[in-house]
From TrEMBL:
Transmembrane segments: none annotated. Keywords: Cytoplasm, Exonuclease, Hydrolase, Nuclease, RNA-binding. It comes from the Bacteria. SMART domains: Lactamase_B (SM00849). Residues 33-232 form the Metallo-beta-lactamase domain. It comes from candidate division WWE3 bacterium. The lineage of its organism: Bacteria, Katanobacteria. This is Ribonuclease J.
């Protein structure tokens, strides 16, 4: 560090040390998920959020992507706390994969704790789950002091209730971290966003505002959750005598509350269907957020013995996820539930999140062909309200904060740019907005901000079936296998290690049709035999194998213009 730039502050403990602050966007991806922000001083680090992202469809067998936490592992002695803003997967979903290594206490709401514990139980033994340290915080909790940081929560609205923003006092000034939010004066389960507190921080002086920017390109304000209060009742009334399904995202407890209230009014019992819906409804009921009589809920199995027009199914799969409850139902392969003729299926979810158009179209098609009446956003208003504020909401928060600097978060690069333009329209110089991308660092000294040295981050893939990290090499192999096939050369070897180059066997799958390509197979075999003879004096089989695989790759590409996955291995004869 340049000594001249070093700013020292006398701390309350009497020490005199470097008082600079770094804000690091450690996670984030093109789809604006995988949220993770790091606040770092010379002595301490706190983290806000730790979410998963969703892979491109070309990433074979990769179910989720998570932030690369190598930077934090290298500074483990400085980690003081992980704060989680709200109960969405792209803000908490990566915790089970990294918490064991990071070993940092988690500070969050009751609902988020409940959701994280469920995810931990999926991956760890009970004792390990109990080892994770949780600290409950609410907007009423006193300021939490963690080294150089003092953190106070305040309430915000979103599609999942009990979201929080954080006022983080740092040696450089107060930072407001407000992830996904909207302004809702009539939310279903929680309280309206605490605009007064945000304004008060603004009056006291805010160094930097980190604000949601996802909805900034649309004019106006997002509607209140309350706008849907009548929606479900109206539909249920018209659906007398019919089977009813409503699908929504599993974390949207307020929406579930509205669906359940409407169902009970129409004397229907509730069936939660699908793992994610069952899990989140169970956690919410245990925590008292869906406080209806137990007798109103029955299981999928019990539902088989009920008249179907006395039930409402709340079912997972609103994005057409393969293998989800609704998707299997639409193909007539659900197992427990049979889709009745003229069933009513209501989609109450964001109609257009990235990457789901095709599976949703297929789902709508299958359900319609199976004889259901399908209600979705394109043909019906008031089926869904967004959890994200529009330009009006975001402008309000930005203006109230009166921050010196701004970092748009939770949106794509294009949305970040739109946020910058919105801020400029407020008369704020655009040099005060920093559109941080993954790994980028904003450094504060003497209350002034400038971009710091980037943190190196690599993609981290998770295969959901094993719930473990997946090497990029494996992902690459899968891609190659699916596009180019595989070419295996089997080389006989005797127990003394002597190779038999003349007896090479070749097996291929998905590469070429062998029967029509006998000549190529013969040439390949001869090529490998010749190569092996050349390598016959080499002792290190692994290096021979690697060289041979490379050579075969070149040979086949020249012959066929294709690049199958190549495997050379020996078999003891
Ligand atoms: Zn969210």
């Amino acid at each position: 560090m340049n000594e001249e730039n070093k700013v020292n502050t006398i701390y309350s403990d009497g020490t005199n040390r470097d008082a600079s602050l770094k804000i690091i966007k450690l996670g984030s991806d093109v789809g604006a998920t995988k949220n993770m922000t790091v606040y770092e001083t010379a002595n301490d680090i706190i983290i806000v959020d730790c979410g998963i992202g969703f892979p491109d469809s070309e990433l074979f067998g990769v179910d989720v992507v998570i932030p690369d936490v190598t930077y934090l592992l290298d500074r483990k002695h400085k980690l003081r706390g992980l704060f989680v803003t709200h109960a969405h997967e792209d803000h908490l979903g990566a915790i089970p994969y990294v918490i064991d290594d990071l070993d940092v206490p988690i500070y969050t709401s009751k609902l988020v704790q409940g959701f994280i514990k469920e995810r931990l139980k999926d991956k760890y033994q009970k004792a390990q789950v109990e080892n994770v340290s949780f600290n409950l915080i609410t907007p009423d909790t006193e300021e939490i002091v963690l080294g150089d940081f003092k953190v106070k929560a305040f309430g915000v609205n979103h599609s999942v209730p009990f979201g929080m923003g954080f006022a983080i006092k740092t040696p450089q000034g107060t930072v407001l971290h407000i992830a996904d939010y909207k302004i809702d004066f009539t939310p279903v389960l929680d309280k309206p966003i605490e605009l007064g507190k945000i304004a008060r921080y603004g009056d006291e002086g805010v160094l930097c505002l980190l604000s949601d920017c996802l909805g900034v390109t649309a004019e106006g304000f997002t509607k209140s959750e309350k706008a849907l209060n009548e929606t479900f009742g109206n539909f249920f009334e018209k659906a007398e005598g019919r089977q009813i399904f409503v699908t929504t995202i599993s974390s949207n407890i307020s929406r579930m509350h509205q669906i359940i209230s409407a169902a009970l009014k129409h004397n229907r019992k509730i069936v939660f269907s699908g793992r994610s819906i069952e899990q989140s409804s169970r956690v919410s009921r245990e925590l008292g957020y869906l406080s209806f009589e137990d007798s109103n809920f029955i299981t999928e199995k019990e539902a088989m013995n009920y008249k179907q027009d006395s039930l409402v199914y709340i079912i997972a799969g609103c994005y057409g996820q393969s293998g989800s409850g609704l998707e299997r139902l639409s193909r007539g392969e659900h197992g427990s539930i049979t889709l009745e003729d003229n069933a009513l299926v209501i989609f109450s979810a964001d109609p257009n999140p990235p990457g789901v158009q095709e599976p949703v179209e297929r789902l709508l098609h299958n359900l319609t062909v199976a004889g259901s009446e399908v209600i979705y956003s394109e043909i019906q208003d008031n089926l869904h309200v967004s959890g994200h504020g529009l330009k009006g909401d975001i402008t309000t928060i930005t203006a109230l904060s009166k921050a010196k600097y701004y970092i748009p978060i939770g949106g794509t690069a294009a949305k970040q740019r739109a946020y910058t333009n919105m801020v400029r329209d407020l008369g704020i110089d655009r040099s005060r907005v920093f559109e941080l991308l993954e790994g980028e660092v904003l450094e504060f000294r003497n209350g002034e901000a400038k971009l710091g040295e980037k943190v190196e981050v690599k993609p981290v893939y998770i295969d959901g079936r094993y719930r473990n990290e997946l090497s990029p090499v494996v992902v690459k192999d899968r891609e190659q296998l699916s596009e180019e096939g595989v070419f295996v050369a089997v080389i006989p070897v005797d127990s003394s290690g002597k190779l038999f180059p003349e007896k090479v066997e070749i097996v291929t799958r998905g590469f070429i049709y062998v029967k029509d390509s006998q000549a190529l197979m013969d040439r390949s075999r001869k090529y490998i035999t010749d190569k092996l003879k050349k390598f016959s004096n080499e002792k290190d089989w692994n290096s021979v194998r690697r060289k041979l695989e490379k050579d075969i790759d070149k040979f086949l590409f020249k012959e066929t213009g294709r690049a199958p996955l190549i495997i050379v291995h020996t078999i003891v004869v």
